[in-house]
Amino acid sequence: MKNRLLWLAIVLMTVVGAAGCNSNNNMEEPSDPTDDDNERVDITLTRGEQTLVTRNNDFAFNLIRAAAKDKSMVLSPLSVTYALGMLNNGAEGLTQQQINTVLGFSSASETNDFCRKMLTEAPKLDNTTKVMIANTVYVNKDYTLNPKFVKLANDYYDATPESRNFKDGRTLDVINKWASDHTEKMVEKVLDTNSFDTDAVSYLLNAIYFKGVWANKFLKSETKDEEFEGVENKLPMMHQERELAYSENEDCQVVRLPYGNHAYTMTILLPRKGKTVEKVLEGLTCESWRQKYQYLGSALVDLKLPRFETKTDVGLNDIMKSLGMPLAFTDDAEFPYFCDVPTKIDMMKQVARIKLDEEGTEAAAVTVIGMVKATSVAPTEPRRVNFHATRPFLYVISEQSTGAIFFIGQYLGN
Prior knowledge:
Elements: E1 11-19, H1 47-67, E2 73-75, H2 77-88, H3 93-103, H4 108-121, E3 130-140, H5 147-157, E4 162-164, H6 171-181, E5 202-213, E6 224-226, E7 235-248, E8 252-259, E9 264-271, H7 277-282, H8 286-294, E10 297-306, E11 308-315, H9 317-323, E12 343-356, E13 360-373, E14 393-399, E15 405-411
Parallel strand pairs: 1-5, 3-4
Antiparallel strand pairs: 1-13, 2-15, 3-5, 5-13, 6-7, 7-8, 7-10, 8-9, 9-14, 11-12, 12-13, 14-15
């Protein structure tokens, strides 16, 4: 199977959508979404579960640091967590330990419990914000999945494995249609003829879809073409002035834009002049996120934000190896509870997309993990990723009551 390592991994898809509102002086405000019955609902976590979320957010920051290049990108760390969490039920030994450590969990059962809670509770928090999480597994008809793995996939991930003839000429289309159907067509193709292996043992997929409405929309009439640092052509810049959650530190200014009933938000980190997104990323950890960015003050903010669309297609093999789970990609991988033959991860990839405008945000991410039979082929060394470009800002879409990060990205104007 050909490895196309441009980004992130297992088939995990995610879509996010939202919208925004504007309060400008001396002008009519757009009507905001109102629903008297749309009271915010929070997810209740134990202290231990909150610790798990905090550690998993560290994975989000490590992920974008490892994947960041000289272009705009969007990732879904939660999508990767679901895909790897599901697969980890087939692992044991050091392989399982490495996956747990990378994701920030101490055991596969902790990952299962976290994923189950988010899967069942996240869609209920805001009736103006649409959140869907879906998982599935396709297995080559020549192989049989372990019954224990199948039960855990069903019980915790609502995933019902499907046996297919990978050489029938239709399975590739079936996988891509599943991705499209579960991302509202935001991700219409996650695999192609180069990345789909008819001899593969299995493909695991997760899809997350999020679509929300800004609590305060932007007026389209206030959007003007303006200069954007590092970009030759002017970009459509949305504008509003209102009281918002805000803070600043030596590295950046921070503003938080809520969706719907404020259950979900987008936090924007704008590096100060002379600073770069890379510099801000260097200091992002679960602890600095909690101390500097999770709880903000308020200010009257004159806000300008570009209207943009970003698509990311990246292989995750080298990235996940570099983050601390190299064994899963080698012939020594330990997945005895996954299938009836020894297997290893052959391909991890994520395709993600985000659209942000005056009405809100729509984003999608698909993570794919392709499993093949373990052979005697020597493993390859992980690729090193460098940060070279200056980036104008970072953004994080998260759930407020838990702090769980659904999407994280950077926008460079391209």
